Amino acid sequence: MTSPSTIQAERPGAAPARPPASAARRRRRPTADAGWRKGWLGPALIVPAMLIFLVYIAYPVVANLVLSFFGNSDLDPALSFVGLKNYEWVATARPSLLAFRNVLVFAVLTVPVQMVLGLLFAVALQGKGIVRGILRTLLFLPVVLTPVVVGYLYADLLEASNGPVNTALRSLGLGVAAQQWLSDPALALPVVAFVNVWMWTGFSMAIYQAALSAIDDEVLEAASLDGANRFQSLWHVLVPMLRPAHFSLLILGVIGTLKTFDLVYVLTRGGPDNASQVPTTLLFQTLLDGRDGRAAAIGTVVFLLAMICTAFQLRQYLKGDRS
After folding, report:
1. Which one of 36, 128, 247, 278 counts the least CB within 10 Å of its CB?
2. Helix or strand run (H / E) with residue 252
3. Which residues contact 215 (CB under 8 A, 6 or more apart)?
4. φ and ψ at residue 81, rounded to 5 degrees
5. pLDDT tens-digit profile of 2-52?
6. DSSP calls for 255-310
7. Strands (E), 160-203
8. pLDDT above 80 (res 228)
9. CA dihedral defined by 94, 96, 102, 106, rounded to 10 degrees?
10. Is there a cis peptide before residue 30, judged by omega within 30 degrees of 0?
């Protein structure tokens, strides 16, 4: 009795019988070139990124950490090992304590305000239209300006004697409202915070607009059918659904606050009497004074604070995402 494969082979014009699948798999052996790609291509592509990370990130961080354990004095400018004395100065010196207190106040005055205003502008200007497009462009325009340009602009506007702001107040009979905006210890930090909010609210608006574009309109329509008004839809529907945008802006805002330098330095130089001093301006001034070890200690503390804040915020985000 002949098998079906033999009958198929004996038919005129029939296609040759296929070998069993297992035999075909045995004959398909990976070539040496495919094996090399599988084993080495991935690591080879990672090497350039690793080199950039090691040279431009890891090495400066480690070198700064090592330098923070060395110090010098006016009598002996040569660096010598001082242990934790630089960190002791960071933890106890009045300029350092004021700088870290100010950066905390600065974060409270800027990050939440930028987020709230950005969300309100994004919701109000959502949709198409020439007027809305122009307003969105105007609100985003400060973001593309450099902080140095913004700093010099507001330094001229807020100049105490002949600045446009005080001149306008005096011309309106409100001379009592004219202030030493940048040289009053009570006003310097809030004024710098105001300028920062003016500059970065447009960025928050852009992030929220991108997040809003991913939300289906049917969600808001369903809320409206359930009797929710505009504010209730915003608070109970949109705000929870924009949670990833909230955390992104919060992380970027905190890190941006910790490394704020140029805007503060151009406007107030950290004064008066350290009233607007932040860690980065204190680091720069300490470095100019020749205290390399102290400056490195300040930089290390700022780096650690940024890492701790980022890790905590990411943990809270992932914890809420799992729940």
Report:
1. 128
2. helix 243-258
3. 238, 241
4. -70, 125
5. 444 444 444 555 555 555 555 555 555 555 555 555 667 777 788 888 999
6. HHHHT--HHHHHHTTT-STTTT--HHHHHHHHHHTT-HHHHHHHHHHHHHHHHHHH
7. none
8. no
9. 180
10. no
* DSSP H or E stretch at residue 164: helix 164-171
Which residues on adjacent β-strands are paired with residue 70?
81
Retrieve residue 81's tokens. Answer: 């090992």
* Token pair belonging to 16: 């040759």
Q: What backbone phi and psi angles, to 5 degrees, belong to 70?
A: -120, 155
The residues pairing with 81 across neighbouring beta strands, listed in sequence order, are: 70
Q: Which amino acid is at 15?
A: A
Instruction: Please name the residue that has the structure tokens 């960190």.
Output: 87
Q: Which amino acid is at 33?
A: D
Task: For residue 209, give the nearest of 111, 139, 122, 148 by alpha carbon.
Answer: 122
For the record, the structure tokens of 202 come out as 């447009």
- Residue 148 sits at the vertex; the CA angle it makes with 146 and 150, to the nearest 5 degrees, is 75
- Tell me if 266 sits within 8 A of 157, measured CB to CB: no
Instruction: Tally the C-alpha atoms within 13 A of residue 7's C-alpha that lie toward its C-beta.
Output: 4
**278-321: per-residue pLDDT in tens?**
999 999 999 888 888 999 999 999 999 999 988 888 888 777 66
DSSP-assigned states of every residue in 28-87: -PPPHHHHHIIIIIHHHHHHHHHHHHIIIIIHHHHHHHHHTTEE--SS--S-EE-TTHHH
Instruction: Output the six-digit token pair for 152.
Output: 């010099």
Q: Given CA atoms 215, 316, 97, 295 in this order, what sign does their dihedral have?
A: negative
Q: Is the dihedral of CA 121, 127, 129, 134 positive or negative?
A: positive
pLDDT digits (tens, 9 = 90+) for 187-198: 999 999 999 999
